[in-house]
Design brief:
Layout: E1 6-21, E2 27-43, E3 47-51, H1 58-66, E4 73-78, E5 81-82, H2 88-97, E6 98-101, H3 115-125, H4 132-145, H5 162-175, E7 180-184, H6 192-209, E8 212-217, H7 220-223, E9 229-234, E10 237-243, H8 244-249, H9 254-261, H10 268-272, H11 305-309, E11 315-318, E12 321-323, H12 337-340
Parallel strand pairs: 3-8, 3-9, 6-7, 7-8
Antiparallel strand pairs: 1-2, 1-4, 4-5, 9-10, 10-12, 11-12
Helix pairs in contact: 3-4, 3-5, 4-5, 5-6
This protein binds iron/sulfur cluster (SF4).
């Protein structure tokens, strides 16, 4: 990817949380490896989806990018500046460039504040208005842009529906004039009928304002329409990253295949002809005690000897398509993907 195209460059991001216990509560009893050496880039104007089951580290990755959680190691480079090297004061000006839209639109909005003040708060914090009149006009404009009537600016969050509250959260994020918005499961708390409206709104705003999105979701069905590329995470690791089309047409990692097979197919005939059964067995292991070798080996139907002994690294299997699995690495094991994954995967429509 040409360097000038890259807005966000995350290098070996590692976020470990120490767990404390003992009589005085000050003894380190373990370490949760929430994010364990994650690297990826996001181009200007693109949407990178981050997908995985809960506990895979996707939301913590988002919080680490924003430095709302301090990384244990690694770099987060935004537009050429390494954010992890900045002190809190220096970080403040970069905070404006990165905003977050949260999963729970109600919990994210202060119930005691009017929408005028919720959406306008970033204008105050970052000094983005000259006077009261401009403040009000800007908030009204933002509300209009997200499809809300500006006359509702004096209402409180509880007077809005779930979808409207998410629109308020989006307007608030836009108020800071960000380059990057981290959308953390922005539609998963909404009715299915409203989800598409909010996704369409995010797409329209991206085009209008040239925004870049990191779009976090727990399943592949949601990210299908909005993402240009998709990164699949499992237990704090990236297991596959590629373009949206390559991922849906040719998912290569066994975990991605399992997620893919969980997407419902609306046509019952197509559903019965689904040839690949990659259904996930068992629970995701604890990030306090992750499996040795490949983190997925305890649930993988293709696991073989090398898998518990050696951690697979991300390697390019075709242009722009990276996978972390020994089946694609002849130097790691003599079992290969062609031998074990012969059954073609039914397209998910
Ligand atoms: Fe499965 Fe082994 Fe590949 Fe891990 S490395 S996904 S256990 S085949």
């Amino acid at each position: 990817m040409p360097e000038h195209d890259v807005l966000l460059d995350v290098q070996n991001l590692t976020i470990h949380f120490k767990m404390y216990g003992g009589l005085m509560g000050n003894k380190v009893t373990g370490t949760v490896k929430a994010v364990d050496g994650v690297s990826f880039q996001v181009r200007r104007g693109e949407t990178l989806g981050v997908v995985g089951e809960s506990g895979c580290g996707k939301s913590t990755t988002g919080l680490g990018v924003l430095r709302m959680v301090e990384p244990t190691a690694g770099k987060v480079v935004l537009d050429g500046t390494d954010l992890t090297s900045l002190n809190q004061k220096e970080m403040r000006k970069f905070r404006r460039k990165m905003q977050m839209v949260y999963q729970d639109p109600f919990g994210a909005l202060d119930p005691r504040m009017r929408v005028l003040d919720i959406v306008g708060e970033p204008l105050l914090i970052h000094g983005l208005h000259k006077n009261k009149g401009e403040y009000k006009a800007r908030v009204h404009d933002l509300l209009e842009r997200v499809g809300l009537n500006p006359n509702m600016a004096n209402r409180y969050p509880h007077q809005f529906s779930g979808g409207q509250r998410q629109r308020i959260g989006i307007a608030r994020a836009l108020a800071a004039e960000p380059d990057l918005i981290i959308c953390d499961e922005p539609v998963s708390a909404l009715d299915v009928s409203i989800q598409a409206q909010v996704i369409n709104l995010l797409e329209d705003l991206q085009e209008e304002f040239g925004l870049t999105y990191l779009f976090i979701a727990h399943d592949l069905a949601v990210v299908k329409h909005i993402c240009d590329r998709i990164m699949v995470m499992y237990l704090g690791h990236v297991v596959e990253i590629t373009t949206r089309d390559a991922l849906y047409d040719n998912p290569q990692h066994p975990y991605t295949q399992a997620l893919m097979s969980a997407i419902p197919i609306p046509d019952p005939d197509a559903e019965t002809q689904r040839q690949f059964d990659g259904s996930l067995q068992g629970e995701i292991p604890s990030p306090m005690n992750p499996p040795s070798g490949c983190p997925f080996h305890t649930r993988c139907q293709y696991a073989h000897e090398a898998c518990s002994a050696k951690k697979p690294v991300l390697m390019e299997t075709e242009t722009g398509h990276q996978v972390a699995c020994h089946l694609y690495d002849p130097s790691a094991s003599d079992v290969n993907a062609d031998d074990v994954m012969k059954a073609p995967l039914a397209r998910t429509g």
